[in-house]
Amino acid sequence: MKDNAKQRDARPHIAASIFWTHVKRIGFVRTLFGGFLQYLSVFEFVMLHLTVIVVLYRAMLAPLFGLKRFRVGDYMLFDRGKVRRMRAFDRLNCQFCAYANGTAKMWNDELDELARADFRKGNVLAKLVVAAYSVCLATFLFFSFVLSKILFVVIALFLGMHIVKLGELRAELKSADYAGGHSPVLRSLIRGAKLYAYSLAGNLEQIESSWCPLKHVETATSVTSAHHANFFEQDKLDEMIEVLAKDGTVSPRKPKY
User: Fold this and answer.
1) Structural domain includes residue 254
2) How many whole angstroms from its chain centre is CA 251?
């Protein structure tokens, strides 16, 4: 038993295993550039976290309107770095996935809370805060949504991933009167933010399902995305690699090429 454990630990570490598995499937150049470009999105998630989650939601709106506060520790689950056969670079990869996916999921949930909120009541200060929030959100969406789309289109070209189509979601939001209790301007902004958040989550689902499909060790308060149900337990690394070698992902959306 000890010899078998030593053999498993001696195998290539996770990042190398996944990288070379994709290389064998789609080639070195596509894997290298597609994988490297994913790291550029770290700036997007840091900005998302610090602006719309921390400043705009938690500091500006939640205290004034009594909105639900979402615990960062319930969404960003930094436990996959403890998996065996992981080195420093592996941990960095998995922690980045945990940060990005947790940020995207938390923002989606916060937007749903905003859509249900009642901003019509409140004093002059509250109304000014809502106006400031609207301006800041509009600015953030304009720059981030465009840059995010461009970056993922390039990543998708290298890795054969699918571009998230927003037409159906746009129709669903309109049909459900999402954020319908708000003014036309704020309603449009929240719906636009939801489209961005949905697109971001769809992109992450494909990336994480191809590059780090390991389940978190969940607690009673943990919040994970639905696609984590397709992931492997943390002691099933070899089985995970076999699936990636065959299909390129554990996602139902297989690479187009």
Assistant:
1) no
2) 14
This prediction has a pTM of: 0.89
- What confidence score (pLDDT) does residue 16 get? 85
Share of the chain above pLDDT 70, in %: 95
Q: Which residue from 163, 239, 248 is spatially nearest to 8, judged by alpha carbons?
A: 239
31 falls within a domain? yes
- CB within 8 Å of 75: residues ≥ 6 apart: 102, 103, 105, 106, 223
Q: How far is CA 1 from CA 4, 7, 55, 92, 239, in A?
A: 5, 10, 52, 30, 19
* pLDDT for position 10: 52
Tell me if 6 is assigned to some domain: no
Find the domain containing 148 and state its range.
12-247
The number of CA neighbours under 13 Å toward the Cβ of 137 is 28
Rounded CA-CA distance 80/146 in Å is 31
Which of the four pLDDT bands, split at 50, 70 and 90, describes residue 1?
very low
Alpha helices (H) along the chain: 2-10, 14-26, 28-38, 42-48, 62-65, 72-75, 88-116, 124-159, 167-175, 184-211, 237-247
Q: Read off the pLDDT band of 143 (50, 70, 90).
A: confident
pLDDT of residue 148 exceeding 80, the answer is yes
